[in-house]
Amino acid sequence: MARITLLTDFGTADGYVAAMKGVIAEIAPSVFMDDAAHDIAHGDILGAALALRRYWKVYPAGTIHLVVVDPGVGSARRALAICADGRYLVGPDNGVFSFVLSDASVSEVYSIATEHVASRTFHGRDVFAPTAARLAGGAKLPQLGERISDAVTIALPPAVATDQSVMGEIVHIDRFGNLISNIPREMLKPGQAARVAEKDLPIVGTYSDVESGELAALVNSDGVIEGARRDGSAARTLNVERGAPLELISE
Amino acid sequence: MARITLLTDFGTADGYVAAMKGVIAEIAPSVFMDDAAHDIAHGDILGAALALRRYWKVYPAGTIHLVVVDPGVGSARRALAICADGRYLVGPDNGVFSFVLSDASVSEVYSIATEHVASRTFHGRDVFAPTAARLAGGAKLPQLGERISDAVTIALPPAVATDQSVMGEIVHIDRFGNLISNIPREMLKPGQAARVAEKDLPIVGTYSDVESGELAALVNSDGVIEGARRDGSAARTLNVERGAPLELISE
Amino acid sequence: MARITLLTDFGTADGYVAAMKGVIAEIAPSVFMDDAAHDIAHGDILGAALALRRYWKVYPAGTIHLVVVDPGVGSARRALAICADGRYLVGPDNGVFSFVLSDASVSEVYSIATEHVASRTFHGRDVFAPTAARLAGGAKLPQLGERISDAVTIALPPAVATDQSVMGEIVHIDRFGNLISNIPREMLKPGQAARVAEKDLPIVGTYSDVESGELAALVNSDGVIEGARRDGSAARTLNVERGAPLELISE
Asked: According to the model, what pLDDT value does residue A118 have?
């Protein structure tokens, strides 16, 4: 049985997500639907791309990941259907699939034909949900549109290493107030600490390696350096936002 | 296989929704359950009715829509089970089904017998969830109670057209801060703009027809006039709430 | 077909919940997954335990309840798999299962072997989700680890009865601002009222037994005394937090 996941910025106070699910249920009545997350910040393409990176390949081959964070809905931006390492992805061509495309061993990207779609404001319901449901029903990518090779991608700013330090930045703040950086674990050297907002955070193994309320940094479950506060919000404590520097320094 | 959707104002920080799902799983173990939305504002019957309007008929015939926004729980208000255009709906008789009943071609409404229910504070778990599950298991409406013809309905204030303008109002503000009015697309004339809070919003085709940060109005995916701000919240920008006037004017 | 419920404090703005679901879908492709709640306050073990109490036994025997509110992830705290009255429960050994263990007629608790787990910060994905999925696939508890008899439990402060009154406290405030106490219905005597923040709330049968905006108390759907405000938040109106006294007094 097929499984479709749904990632949107629609929230859960309106019926938008349910309208997408209804379209899917109509076309593919016995599909499983998993809510991935619906509280992506309004129009936050990078936030959606980073959330998707956490689960797209954890799901088994054959899963269909629907992503509707789509501030350009109804504009000339293309609609995509992708097969990457055996998983399918459907959503707008605005960069939400950047890390899927960079992390996949093999991928094929198709631009979905949308000429006959009436609505210009809700392609989640009128383009992406029906496409995902058709894939669940066995449709092949070439039936949906034209293959392309120039999907829009966004890149994280690269972390820059010098002899003694690594200059990175906070690319996402999660629900816990953890500061997720662009520094991969491979750049971390023994004896370093993470500097954020003029504080030096010791590198530890897990949150509870420090006392409650203390700040620390660690290699998180995504494999990147993360600043955190045990039992609290590092973002609030340090008063930092996405884009702020996070540096590895040798003490 | 049957599918039950759930719409509540229970939020997702307590176990109330899960208690309803548990009741359903006990009675109808192989049913699909789709969360529609659980962050309807506390007791907001109109908000629930408008959310439900977005998806109830998008789902295929046979779907069971459970709606528990029920500020009058335990009072004399009746409990309803409805069949409308082949879909089933279960919830309190307080107006949440108003647009289902007005939009359906055919509908039958039954008042569910609740004499034997112990709890007076959680009919979601003790009345509505078991009723939905029984319908999923093949129960017929007449087995559940008495047919009635006087379900409670609420009506949107009508938009009023004059020669040169249409006087409407904002009936809902969605998660994006979009201003959803009571003016159907049929009342829009060429050359008009939408006036909200003394600002004139040009009528466009979709959000991205204006620059980021700009205000505009459009025919939304529900087929009504909506005020919006590209990449932002029109509600916050214009400082308006539900009930504020939204007018179509000829410029 | 098996059914797994998920209760976390991960929120719905990141991909953490979806990563857990992906692991489950990989191991047990045809399992049903029900979101219980993901907005438990960050690290709120008691809040999770009370939410779980509301639904764990409402679900049918065979259901697997996954609970990941885990501030001690990666520390020496054990990982548990439990069978209680026919339901399975998987999560950290920090007290989240306290009321399951106290309310169940029979229970067996196993400490899951985790020696081979790489990640120290996301046992939801790397320990608990795969364990739940294996149970869904038919694994037996003794295959997962060692049986133990000293699971961590937390206890609610007991309500204390005197001749004329019962001294209790608010142990949880729900999404509606209802004040959920530790006083079971059996301690309530005729003629009593509930005193909170120097206000006396009359005991009623349901929320709508008082006028809109009025305060009252009632035996709630969990069987305990609850302070409430019709169509509003008792917590905000009375300006009280978890831990504040709630007393039954004879008037």
From this structure: 66
